[in-house]
Design goal:
The protein is an all-alpha fold and about 290 residues long. The chain is about 75% helix and about 0% strand.
């Protein structure tokens, strides 16, 4: 039986990530009519703890330290806020629009990394910021169409997701990936437990499959993405991320009869082309420096 190449395996992992992200989005849409964002995040994080415990048992609890607890706390205040906004956005916007505006989060993350982590701007990053701004204007079209509350919510969500990326990068210099994920589910379980007491609604068995799907895909999406990036270059893998938009748009059309918005697709393509230009510049720069004697 032939063995699949690393590239084929990376593509398979990326397909798993894309399907996980799309399924997570649909599960949130299915739950928003009956459950508040706080309650969803509490249940998702609590189930996440149960899923992670066997991995920690196998890899060792020694990596779980309290040295950088303040950093974990800051990261999860930011991330929890972003997720609440994301759920609100999914409740009021077409799924394709939500995914398109999410593509701006790397731009905010890059800007915050320059301001607070000492990273430097370069031509690729300037291109990403410029095209990201243009792409948002194409989607939002201020002055031509009314800018809804949902659009503003998702733009704020993208900022918080970008800030999450910057704080995560700071933590990766000090903590393992498993430790970061563990503190995420523990801290956000506490946040969700407190916040959901004010909005708690009785659970039904009909919600159980969607809650389980939300919890599982919240972990598998990031795990599959990490495995994909480990198996192939980022310049090959990251452009595939754009496939999430038409996939989510297809789910929105089939499940909720949401029309395809051409300007949303065009704006998302512009935003993503900026992200791709930045990735290309980052990965080619070391090669150019190596040639120079």
């Amino acid at each position: 039986m032939p063995v699949a190449s690393p590239t084929v395996k990376a593509i398979a992992w990326m397909m798993g990530a894309l399907l996980s992200f799309a399924a997570m989005t649909v599960s949130v849409r299915e739950l928003t009519a009956d459950l508040h964002a706080f309650q969803m995040l509490f249940i998702r994080s609590a189930i996440g703890i149960v899923i992670l415990l066997p991995f920690l048992q196998r890899q060792g609890w020694g990596q779980i330290r309290l040295t950088h607890l303040a950093g974990h706390g800051l990261r999860n205040v930011i991330h929890f806020t972003g997720q609440v906004l994301w759920i609100f956005g999914i409740a009021v916007l077409p799924l394709a629009t939500v995914s398109a505006l999410e593509f701006t989060s790397p731009l905010w993350g890059g800007l915050l990394a320059v301001l607070f982590l000492g990273e430097k701007m370069n031509r690729g990053r300037w291109i990403a910021f410029a095209l990201g701004f243009v792409g948002v204007l194409v989607i939002v079209r201020p002055g031509l169409v009314e800018v809804s509350d949902g659009i503003l919510i998702m733009l704020a969500c993208a900022f918080f997701f970008g800030a999450t990326g910057a704080t995560t990068k700071w933590l990766t210099r000090r903590e393992t990936a498993l430790a970061i994920v563990f503190f995420m589910v523990v801290i956000q379980t506490l946040f969700g437990a407190v916040a959901s007491t004010f909005v708690w609604a009785p659970l039904t068995w009909d919600q159980a499959p969607w809650l389980l799907l939300l919890s599982i895909t919240g972990l598998t999406a990031h795990y599959c993405l990490t495995r994909a990036l480990a198996g192939a270059d980022a310049t090959f893998i990251m452009p595939m991320e754009f496939l999430r938009l038409p996939l989510v748009a297809l789910f929105g059309y089939l499940l909720y009869a949401e029309a395809f918005e051409a300007m949303t697709l065009i704006g998302a393509a512009i935003i993503f082309s900026g992200n791709y230009a930045s990735i290309r510049h980052e990965t080619r720069a070391p090669e150019k420096r190596a040639v120079v004697r």
